[in-house]
Amino acid sequence: MLTPEYLHALQNLPLAARRAAEGMLHGAHASRRKGAGMEFNQYRPYQPGDDLRRLDWRLAARSDRYYLRESEVDTSLVVHLVLDATASMNHRDDNGLSKLEYARLLCAALAYVATQQGDAVALTVLHPQGLQHLPPRSDARQQQRIYHTLEHIEAAGRFPDTVTLAPLTARRQPALTVCVSDLYEENGEIEQLLTRLRAATGEVLLLHLMARNELDFTYRGAVTFEDLETGQQLQLDAGQQRRVWQQQLQAWLLDTARRARTRGFEYYRLNTAKPLTDALREFLRRRARG
């Protein structure tokens, strides 16, 4: 079992990404589109600006009309990985792994899988002080660029403001946007960003990270909780508050999933104590529909 703790303990992000993705590429298929490929599919009328090398000159000589040969070709997607690196991602589970460390492994594995599929991969890290952005590329060195960026990320601060985020949605480009976040927000700012990204790129896969100690409320006795982004503290007795906590958490999770799907996002919740396998399967399933 390739547990998150094991992968993190490797201290080698490229190796961990490859290990996590083992066995996940079997049966994956590239999507297909019409274009200038090898297998003939159909003709279509010439339009100004088309590549003249694709004209069927013999057909033109017979019919006095200009047509292009179209083929089915394997096509790559643009996969845009968007990583929430705000301070709440520093939350640690009972296994000692933080959400950011899990997210780092997950993004590295997704980049590995996407690259193996021939996709162009982009990475954006969301920080309050600015965006770290690697534009989409499919060359052999892009994976290393992504690994290097992920290895040096530190979670801090609150979610970036709309001015900081504006460049992300300024350009419309079809892509599969994969957002990795714990979805802790103050005024719906993550939902707003993803709504704009969906309008700009067309597809959003939202991977919602939750730690096991949050989901199961594994705390005991008197506990002091601190909001990692605001510094606010709350003291409570874990035994007395467990039922109320779990009821409110389940209500929030159900509402979060409902709102995400209402907005048109593909939503998937992940437990950071469990292997990355389910997230990678969900990515491949979503990609196969592209």
How are the SSEs placed, and which strands pair?
Blueprint: H1 4-9, H2 13-21, E1 31-35, E2 39-45, H3 57-63, E3 67-75, E4 78-84, H4 99-116, E5 120-127, E6 130-137, H5 142-151, H6 162-169, E7 175-181, H7 189-201, E8 202-210, H8 212-215, E9 222-226, E10 233-237, H9 238-262, E11 266-271, H10 277-288
Parallel strand pairs: 4-5, 4-7, 7-8, 8-11
Antiparallel strand pairs: 1-3, 2-3, 5-6, 9-10
Helix pairs in contact: 2-4, 4-5, 4-10, 6-7
Structure notes:
This is DUF58 domain-containing protein. InterPro entries: DUF58, vWFA_dom_sf. Residues 42-242 form the DUF58 domain. Pfam families: DUF58. With 290 residues, the protein is an alpha/beta fold. It folds into two domains: 4-29 and 76-288, Rossmann fold, CATH 3.40.50; 31-75, no CATH class. The protein is 39% helix and 26% strand. It has helices at residues 4-9, 13-21, 57-63, 99-116, 142-151, 162-169, 189-201, 212-215, 238-262, 277-288, and strands at residues 31-35, 39-45, 67-75, 78-84, 120-127, 130-137, 175-181, 202-210, 222-226, 233-237, 266-271. The protein has a six-stranded mixed sheet with strand order 6-5-4-7-8-11, with helices on both faces. Strand 7, helix 7 and strand 8 form a beta-alpha-beta unit. Helix 2 packs across helix 4 (99-116), helix 4 (99-116) runs antiparallel to helix 5 (142-151) and helix 6 (162-169) packs parallel to helix 7. It starts with a helix and ends with a helix.
